[in-house]
Every structure is written in structure tokens, then in C-alpha cells.
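Contributing new records

If you add data, match the layout below exactly. Sequence lines come first and carry their own label; structure lines follow with theirs. Keep one chain per record. Anything else will be rejected by the validation script.
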Amino acid sequence: MTLLSLQGVTAYYGAIQALRGVDLEVNQGEIVTLIGANGAGKSTLMMTICGSPRARDGRIVLDGTDITGRPTHEIMHMGLAQAPEGRRIFARMSVHENLLMGAQVVK
């Protein structure tokens, strides 16, 4: 079962194209790694999946629901969160605890 699917995803920072036509499929139970040089777009890809920056072209589908162009808070409500490397906001907490904090809804 496909959990996450990207088809032709393109993203920009202003006029600078950061991602060009990215295709990716992650099935339930798989572990996937992104490997590349600094500036290759690994972090940008993860942030684009989470909604910021938004994909300018292409399609992002999470668990059967098209999330392309949805605001970050809506994507978070669907259960998608991340804990980016190097941002030590909660340095003494585990990765799991950081993800839980990132997924909390503020009212």
C-alpha cells in the first residue's frame, strides 16, 4: 500500500527553482533515506511535502489524499510531522518526543 507518493513535484524559493520534477513512492512499512550533497534539495523536499514551501507543480498524495497546496497545519492534522536536523529547539528530548511536540495542535 502506497503511503506517500510524489509525482513531478517542483518547488521554488522566490525565483530560484529548488526541486525539479521529483517522483517518489513510499510504501507502508518501508524505510527510505534521502542521500545527496549539501544544497541538493533533501531538506527542501521534506519541507515541501509538509507544505512549506508549497509545490508549484506536481502532486503529493499522503495515504490516498492529495495534500498538494494544503496549508502546513492541515497536513499536520493528517499526522505528518518532521524533526529537522540541527534545529535544537528541544535538544534534551528524543526524536519521538520532538515529533509529538511538532504534531501538537495549538488552539
